[in-house]
Amino acid sequence: MMSAASLRTMLDDGQPVTKHHPWPRVIVTAELWNALLDGLASSDWTMLGLWGEIGMAHLALYEDSSETIIVASLSCPDGRFPSVGRIHSPAQRLERTMADLIGLQPIGAPDYRPWLDHGCWPVRHPLGAATAPTGMRSPYRFLPAEGESLHQIPVGPVHAGIIEPGHFRFTANGETVVRLEQRLGYVHKGIESLLSGATIDQAARWLGRVSGDSTVAYALAFVRAVEAATKTVVPDRAHWLRALMAELERLANHCGDIGAICNDAAFALMLAHCAVLREKILRASAECFGHRLLMDCIVPGGVIADLSVDGVKTVRALMAELRRDFPPLVELYDNTASLQDRTVNTGFVRPALIKQFGCGGTIGRAGGRAFDARRWPGYPPYDQLTFETPLLTDSDVNARVWLRIHEVQQSLHLIEQILQQLPMGPVYMELNRPGQICEGMALIEGFRGDILVWLRLNADNTVARCHPRDPSWFQWPLLEAAIENNIVADFPICNKSFNGSYSGHDL
Amino acid sequence: MALITDYLVQGCQMLLILLLAPLLTGWVRVIKARLLRRRGPSLLQPYRDLFKLLGKDVVLAESASWLFRIAPYLIFAAIWVAAALVPTFAAGLMFNWTADLIAIVALLGSARFFLALAGLDVGTSFGGIGSSREMMIASLAEPAMLMMVFTLSLLAGTTELSAVAHFMLTAEVGLRVSLGLALLALMMVAIAENARVPVDNPATHLELTMVHEAMVLEYSGRHLALIELAASLKLLLYLSLLACIFAPWGMATAGAGLIAYGFGMAVYLIKLAFGGLLLALFESSIAKMRVFRVDEFLGAALMLGLLGALLLFVSRGL
Description:
The complex is a heterodimer. Chain A is 40% helix and 17% strand. By secondary structure, chain A is of the alpha+beta class. In chain A, helix 5 (200-207) runs antiparallel to helix 6 and helix 7 runs antiparallel to helix 16 (491-498). Chain A is globular. By secondary structure, chain B is mostly helical. Chain B is 69% helix and 1% strand. Chain B has helices at residues 2-35, 45-54, 66-85, 101-121, 125-156, 161-169, 177-193, 212-215, 221-246, 258-284, 294-314; strands at 90-91, 252-253. Chain B has a two-stranded parallel sheet. In chain B, helix 4 runs antiparallel to helix 5 (125-156), helix 5 runs parallel beside helix 11 and helix 7 (177-193) runs antiparallel to helix 9. The A-B interface holds A 151-155, 159-162, 174-175, 262, 264-269, 271-272, 276, 336, 338-339, 341-342, 487-492 and B 32, 35-38, 125-126, 128-129, 132, 197-198, 201, 203-209, 217, 284-293.
C-alpha cells in the first residue's frame, strides 16, 4: 500500500522544484496527490498548511518518524483540485478559504460554504481572477442540530466586552452545549493581497501586523523564509537578539493569558497581578528595543537595533523581578480551590484530535503533542540553548494554565542564557539578491504555536506570493470539540484558555 | 403633630436609602479596586452613571412589549418599598408596623418575577438564559430566606423587624447555634440575590456567564437607570437586614429625638461601610463557581436555615 511508504520515498516520483529552501517542494500528479491524501489519513503525517495560488494548490506535510517537511504542489489549471478536507477534516476551512480567495474549487469537499468571504467584499476571489461580486448571496447556512428542546444561542460578532469579533452559534439543551459552530472572517484585512508585489521591507511590516500579539513571531517567520530563499546568512548576534525578542513576547503573552483565564472565572486578583508583570515586560521591551510589542524590530537581514549594555541591565533586572514575583502567583493559582474547581476537567480536548489536527502551542502540548518548532525543525540559537519542552496530558483548561506557567519558567531560563552567551558582532547583513525567482519557507514557534510562512520572491526581490498560516487554523476547530457536553457558561473560560487569534486567522 | 413627625422620619428613611444605595455600590467597587491595587473610580461614579443614563434616550427592541417598558418601574418600586420596610437608623418607624419580613420576601419575589419576564420579553437568547438561571437561583434562595425567617420568628415570636431588632438587643438572646446558622444562611442568600461573586459576577463582560446582567442586557436609558438603582437598593436592603437582625446596636427608637436619630445614622453608616468592606474582601478572594454548583451553594443555605429552625424545635435554648 502506498501510504506505508515514507513521505520522502513517495515524493521521489514527483518533480522537485529548484530554488525552494530549506525544505523541498515537489510538483505532483493528481494520482500522487490522492495517494498523499490517503497517507495523510492513515499515517503519522501532519498537515502543516494548505494554500494556493492561481492554478496551483500547495500542501505542506510533516512526517514525524523521519522528521521530514515537504511541500507537495498540484497544478490545477482548470481551478479544481481533489479535496483534502474530504479525507482530512483539518483541511476543510483552509480549502474553503482557498475557494474564497483564489477561486480554487476542491472536488468532493464535504463543505462548499464560503469561509472568509461573507459577501461584503468589493471583489470576489481577490487573489485569483478578482472579479466584481455578482448579485445577492444566499444567507449562510449553519449546520443543523435537531432534537426536542434544543435551542440556538447566537453570540457575537459584536460582544459585550472589547474583544475581537467572531460569531459563535451554540445549539444547547438548557445549559448543556450540543454543538458549537464558529464563524470567523470578520477581521479579514486582505494581507495576502497586499503582500503580492510588495517589497521585502514593506512585506516584513505587513507580516508584523498579521496578529499584533505575535508580531515578533510573524516577523521572525517571514524574515527566516526570506533569508532561506535568498540564502542570506545573518550574523550570529542577530539570531540571539531575535530569540530574546521572541521569548520576551512569549513571556508577556503567557503572563497576560494566565491572568485573563483566571479573570474569566471572576478571579480578578490574578489578572491584576499578571497585568502588572506583563506591563513590566512591555516597558522593558520598549526601553531595550524602542517598541512595547517589539513591532518592526526584526527586519530582513537582522534586527533593527542592537541591545546596549544598559539594555542588558534592564532585561537582567526584569528577570530578577519576574523570578521574585511570578512564583507567588503560581502558588496563588494552585491554592485557590474555587479557581481549580472551574479549570480542572473543563474544556477537555481528546489527544487524538489534537494529533489529527496537528495542533501546536499550549493547546497541543497540554494535550500530549510534544511538537515545538524551536526544538524541531529548530532554528538558531535554540540549538545552543538548554530548555525543556513542557508536556502535559490532561488536555483541560487547568493543564493549559499550567503549561503556560511552565513555559514562562522556561522562557525566563532561556532569556538568562541568552544574556549570558550573547555573542558580539554586527546585527544586520544586507540581503542577497539572487536575481531570479526563489522560494522559501519557515516554521517558527510563536506563543500560540507554530507559525508557517511560505513565500516566493520575484527576480527583482519583490514578493510574488506569501502565505502566512496562523497556528489558530488548527486550534479554532478544536474549540468546537472542547465545548461539547460542557455548559454554555463555561465557554468563555475554555475560549480564553485557547486564546485563538482572530486577526491571524482571518488574515 | 406626632403623625406629621412620623411621616417626616419615614420620609427621611426612604430618601436616605435612595441616596445611600449608589454610594454603597461605589464603596464596594472602590474597595475591590484597591484590593487589586487599582485606583478605581470615584465613590460618586454610580451617581454620575445614573444621571448619565437618565439623560439618555431609551432604545427599545422592536419585539419589546408594554411589559418590558413597565417592568423597570415595577421592579424599582417593589424594591424601594421593601428596602423602606427594613429599619435602618431607627426602629419602629411608621412603615415598620405595616409589613413584616415575609412581606419583604414577597416584594423581592415580585420584583424578580417581573425582571425575569422582562428578560424573556424581547426574545433574545441571553435574556432567556439569564431568566432561566435567575429562576433556578431563586427557587432555592427564596425557601432558604423563608427558613431563616422562620428561625427568627420562632425565637422572637414575631416576623416584624422592629420587634425582632428589639428582641435581639435583650439579654435573654445570648449566643445561639440557631442564630449562627440563620446568619450564615442569610449571608449566602444575600450573595446570591445580589448577583455577587461567586454566584454571579456584576463586573463581567462575558455574555454567556451572566445571570442578572443577561436579563437587563436589552435595557438602556432611564429604564436601565432604574434597574441599576434597584440593584443598588437591593444590596443596601440586604446589608441593612443583616445589620438590623444581627447587629441592631445603636439603632434609635421611634420618636427618640434628633440626637438619637443622628447617632443611629452614624452607627448605621459605619455598619454599611463595614458590610461593604467584608463583601469586597470576600468577592476578591474567591472565583466564580460553575453555574450548576450554585444549587449546591444555595442548597447549603437552605439546609442551614432548616437546621436552625429544627434546632429550635428540639430545644428553645439552642
